[in-house]
Amino acid sequence: MNVNYDFAGKVALVTGAGMGMGYATAKAFAAAGARVVVSDVSAELAEKVAAELVEGGTEAIAVTCDVANDDAVAALVAKTVETWGQLDFAYNNAGVQPTPAEMADQTVAEFDRVTDINQRGVWSCMRHELAQMRKQGHGAIVNCSSVGGLIGGKALGIYYGSKHAVLGLTKSAAMDYAAQGIRVNAVCPGTINTPMVAKMLNEQPEAMDEFMKLQVIGRLGEAEEIAQAVLWLCSDGASFVIGTALTVDGGFSIN
């Protein structure tokens, strides 16, 4: 998969960049010539990825950030601008899944944990990213929703609800800022070969068997395939794409 973009001189911020889709996207931005802000709740993972990118010839910094903490998100964006004076692209990828359970058995604590990261975290990231992009008069943001933001699912109501909310935030922000030179879109990954999905495979083999029956393409997606979708949404090739939910799910949602 060798789609080439020229993001030289641009600055890209990726949350949840320590592994999975965030890691793949940080690498893809670097390969396209962007300077990359590698953000993760794990300082160890963020620093490891940033060091890898720097070793490969990319300008990159690591910033530890829990997106559920608005002050930490404000500091993340401030560090980005302090370092490079701008913020051109942001991929708001950080997210978590709850312990699977029917809704009557889910807890307030679990609801709050997932919602704080998946929904409020995306809102918080956008809030600070948009403030900077508004000053610049340009920028592109891609939020990570999910195929679960488009459909319902058993035992994962908290997760699916949070991912539906991401699409509402995306469309609303897109309407607010399109005329100001800022494009806001979302990507909706299906079942992707990431550490989160590997955990599901181990803990919920029956559920994953059902998922795979609906995977029209007959395989899991790869994190690099999501990264390419994100880069396209940030590129000039998507200059007329506003407020969309780009589904990248191997045909799962067409069943």
TrEMBL record:
EC id: 1.1.1.47
Keyword Oxidoreductase recorded: yes
Superkingdom of the organism of origin: Bacteria
Keywords carried by this UniProt record: Oxidoreductase
NCBIfam families noted in UniProt: PRK07231.1 (NF005559)
PANTHER family: BLR0893 PROTEIN (PTHR24321:SF11), DEHYDROGENASES, SHORT CHAIN (PTHR24321)
Enzyme class: oxidoreductase
Gene3D superfamilies named in the record: NAD(P)-binding Rossmann-like Domain (3.40.50.720)
Pfam families: adh_short_C2
Family note: Belongs to the short-chain dehydrogenases/reductases (SDR) family.
This protein's record includes keyword Oxidoreductase: yes
InterPro entries for the chain: NAD(P)-bd_dom_sf, SDR_fam
GO molecular function: glucose 1-dehydrogenase [NAD(P)+] activity
Protein name: Glucose 1-dehydrogenase
